[in-house]
Every structure is written in C-alpha cells, then in structure tokens.
Amino acid sequence: MALKSGTAKYSMRTLAAGSNLITATYLGDSNNSGSTSPVVNEFVRQVTTSTLASSPNPSVYGQPVLLKATVTSPTGAPPDGETVTFKLGQTILGTGTLSGGVATFSTSAFGTGSKALTAVYSGDDAWVASTSRSYIQVIGKASTTTTLNSSQNPASYGQPVTFTATVTPQFGGLPTGNVTFRDGSKLFKTVALSGGTASFTTSTLSPAVHNITATYAGNTAGFTGSSGSLTQNVN
User: Fold this and answer.
1) pLDDT reported for residue 12
2) So what's the pLDDT on residue 39?
3) For the whole model, what pTM was predicted?
4) CA atoms of 73 and 17, how far apart (whole Å)
5) Using CA atoms, how far apart are residues 127 and 84, in angstroms rounded to an integer?
6) Contact between 27 and 33 (Cβ < 8 Å)
7) What is the pLDDT, as a whole number, of residue 41?
8) pLDDT value, residue 5
C-alpha cells in the first residue's frame, strides 16, 4: 500500500471474535529505514444469528421431538461447548451445547396443539447473544391400541368371567378416560381406566359364543380412541 502524507489506511470486515493483535510494518525505501508499530489489541464482539428447526414436525403426543439450533456469524460459528437454551414461551425446556455451531435437545413433553418455541444463545465476552425467531411445533393426538383378555375362556354357565382391557399409547404417556364393554350390541358397562387398564366382571353370560368388545373413547389430553375384541365361549 502506497504512503500518502506519511500515512497508510486499510479496512477489513473479517476480524475474528475476541482479541486481534495488530501491527503495522513499514518496509522502508531508499531514503528511509523500515519500522514496526507497537501492537494494538483490537477486541471484536461478533454479532450472531440463531435459527431453530425440529424433527418431526408435525408430531404427535408423547413422540420425541429433536430441536436443533444453529448459531452463525459473518466469521463462523461460536466456540464449541457454549450453551443454547430451548424455550416454550417463557418456560425452559432444556439446554444443549454447541458443536460446530449446532446444539440439539430432545423432548417428548409437549401437549397437543401449536407450540411457539425459541432457541436462545447465551453469548460470551466475544460473541453477542441471540434469540431465534418463534418456531411453531404442531402436536396432534397419538393413536392407541386396545387389547382385551378374558380370565376364563371357555367358561361354564354362571362362572364369573373378568374382562380386562389394556390401552397402549403410540408413544409415551398414560391414557386416561373410559372403556365401554359390550356383548355384541348389548352394553355391559363403562369403566374408567386406571393405570392404562379397565376391568369388568360378569357371571350372567348365557351358554353360547359371545363377541365381546372393549372400546376406548380417547381423551382430550392427547389420545385417540381404539377398540379390542375377543370371542368368549360359555358352556
């Protein structure tokens, strides 16, 4: 760079975050010897941008969802090991640590509906904190499977028989709500689930082949309904 009036200027936009030790060296000419300036410590705080994504989206109740935050800047990613906080509104879901500019966190704690999520990079002395735009995660109801068992099959006429329905969710959680037991089209009883099961005992089955069904109605919390059936023989 040519000198003008004894000065030289140079501008750049690629200084790394943190301390940058800068010197200026004059190489001299035929009339002047060269020289080097004292070291100047140019400290830069780098502006960052955080973005948030998830997989899968939409998801269903109880299904694990992987949240992925990406933190970038004009000069690259912040250091590995720094913290990103994942939030649902003002509620902290959990944290992840950066590796190559990416932090992840997995959760299955969402209720049904549309949830507004954000990722917050905490920053440090050299990197400015940043928060992602609101990201919408959609959670639907999970399916269930109902299985039905008999305590005695075949049974003798007048013998008590207990029918037990077990409702298993697609992913996690414990289904609540009611199960309705029927013999063909005849209603036996509606029983509330307890610990994912509901039972009904009867000794009034006539000697015949009975088509017993148990129908789980689902609930508003996050589970769809389902049915199970069996053939009960009574001698």
Assistant:
1) 65
2) 73
3) 0.78
4) 10
5) 13
6) no
7) 64
8) 54
**Rounded to an integer, what distance in angstroms lies between the CA atom of residue 219 and that of residue 193?**
11
Question: Domain of 132: which CATH number?
Answer: 2.60.40.10
- CB distance 196 to 166 below 8 Å: yes
Same domain? 156 vs 80: no
What range defines the domain where residue 177 resides? 144-234
Measuring CA to CA, which residue among 209, 144, 218 is closest to residue 179? 218
Name the β-bridge partners of 43.
Answer: 19
pLDDT at 3: 47
Residue 16 covered by a domain: no
Separation between Cα atoms, residue 204 and residue 144, nearest integer Å: 30
> Are residues 87 and 170 located together in one domain of the fold?
no
- pLDDT, averaged per 10 consecutive residues of the chain (235 residues), comes to 62 67 78 79 82 98 98 95 97 98 97 97 96 98 98 97 98 95 97 97 97 97 97 98
Radius of gyration from C-alpha coordinates of the chain: 34
In-domain check, residue 31:
no
